């Protein structure tokens, strides 16, 4: 009886294990993309890019993995297992770049090629890929805002967190652009913090509207800023009178884009970033370097800028942001 | 006599069986790569953090009265962070790396002991339910860590001996694994061979009888939670040296996994029962599985699913008594001990 039970339990486990044996493919080159967390729209979209790369390069086993929960510790474990697996290259979107430094150093010491994304402060990487120059991105958003505001009027900038380097760079890019080109635009609230929280962004936007009833423009930074601003603008009945632009995700911002409370959003397409990471990883494996001005053959990465990174590696920047408004947001499913 | 006694523990048999089976299947499916020295070292290096936290959960559960220590992960991160921030002001890393390392270890463990004692005092003297007390201190420890670091990672100065704790090997075995094994052996000895251990099991089994037998409840609880704190800080020491950094949200998913390991290891959440060797085996089987899935490139969600399945299988195999103890008679047992659902996380 006892043996019977044990047998049943163990057979079930063996069957489950056998079912996944098929997932194993034997090729000599393996490029693994490790994301911050699996199962969310953003990284599902990146997976599409990784799969596309795999299809274009049937001789390379390219796949994406990542922790089931957003936790730096879990991501670290995956990287360590991949080092032990002796993969050819690791392309990683670090949850927290400093946490991965020793592990990525170990990987490079063992001859594994390392590519990172969204980690321009990572020392132990060979190539860090950024979708765009943060200042240019912020200026691009501001350019659209200025057009909507007819180059004049009071405006405010929100950031998710003053500790987030990229968000502050976006905000500064926008502020700098307005200062240089549009003297009639009056920045009344520079960089109000929203704690990366849609609810807080809503409160902040409401306060700003109360303080400056004649305000006509908002630029958001965190993807939740525009959501909060959109809500506040809708509630104040000022849809169409106030221009709202910022970083946002099409699915999250859809409702407000439809109502007109948000005029436009911008983001970068994780699918293309995934493609770019794998492409660069393959170049490294083939012993090639990314040259300044090189064409990766991917939209937004047709003429990349290469600069020196904080470590031995380089930072490769594309111009891969996407401007979206009511007319075309439905093309993006994340 | 001894052999038959060991075989009588169905939980132990089950865990040994599953461990062996997973290793065999993994070796076969990975074409031997699973037993490659690199992979063994990698797994050995990953095991201790979670294992030490699970030992803490086990100790607190054994103490009974709904005992559980939810603050382990928070305390682990805080200890590492405080040491990383204090040390540069006390010892020069370049002049005396050995002293630097020693002081680092001391600060981390003292922090752990203090945090654990705080839990113990609140639970024993203020008579707060352990789950509430440690939930509170978990938020407290995490909160202090956020304030100290402004939410960013704190860098740990690179010193060879210190980095070796998390990354080095001794006799081909990761040093962190040696620490974990030492903790297992020491704790096993304390629980099995000392009066403290006997009293702890007694108190967990029947607090009333323990009271009338003259067991000093308050002192026992303070000591127990103090030990939990030290175990957590050891986990913090390993993670801080392993990653050369300390961050408030590192290992935020570890708590539920540590509870899962303890329960799968046959620890009775209602108190009074738990074998350390079983907890150790539960930790190894989870590590084997998760590394296997990574080797094969299988989704992590499948890993969660397999863990849940294993927990259910272990409960089924352990027999009705323990299942009843977990869900029924031991009313203090929190229902949250069922496996965590396949995680859904927002960005």
TrEMBL record, chain A:
Keyword set includes Signal: yes
InterPro entries according to UniProt: Bact_Solute-Bind_Prot2 (IPR050555), Peripla_BP_I (IPR028082), SBP_2_dom (IPR025997)
Chief location: periplasm
Keyword Signal part of the UniProt annotation: yes
Domain Periplasmic binding protein: 31-289
UniProt xrefs under Pfam families: Peripla_BP_4 (PF13407)
GO MF term (any one): carbohydrate binding
Signal sequence residues: 1-25
Annotated localization: Periplasm
GO cellular component: outer membrane-bounded periplasmic space
Keywords assigned: Signal
Source domain of life: Bacteria
Family statement drawn from the similarity comment of this UniProt entry: Belongs to the bacterial solute-binding protein 2 family.
Protein name as it appears in the record: LacI family transcriptional regulator
From TrEMBL, chain B:
Main localization of the protein described in the UniProt heading: membrane
GO terms, molecular function: transmembrane transporter activity
One of the record's GO cellular component terms: plasma membrane
Keywords: Cell inner membrane, Cell membrane, Membrane, Transmembrane, Transmembrane helix, Transport
Compartments where located: Cell membrane
Topology of this chain in the membrane: Multi-pass membrane protein
Pfam families according to UniProt: BPD_transp_2
Transmembrane region(s): 12-30, 50-68, 75-92, 98-124, 131-149, 169-191, 220-241, 253-270, 277-295
PANTHER family: ABC TRANSPORTER PERMEASE PROTEIN YPHD-RELATED, ABC TRANSPORTER PERMEASE PROTEIN YPHD-RELATED-RELATED
Protein name: Sugar ABC transporter permease
Originating species: Caballeronia zhejiangensis
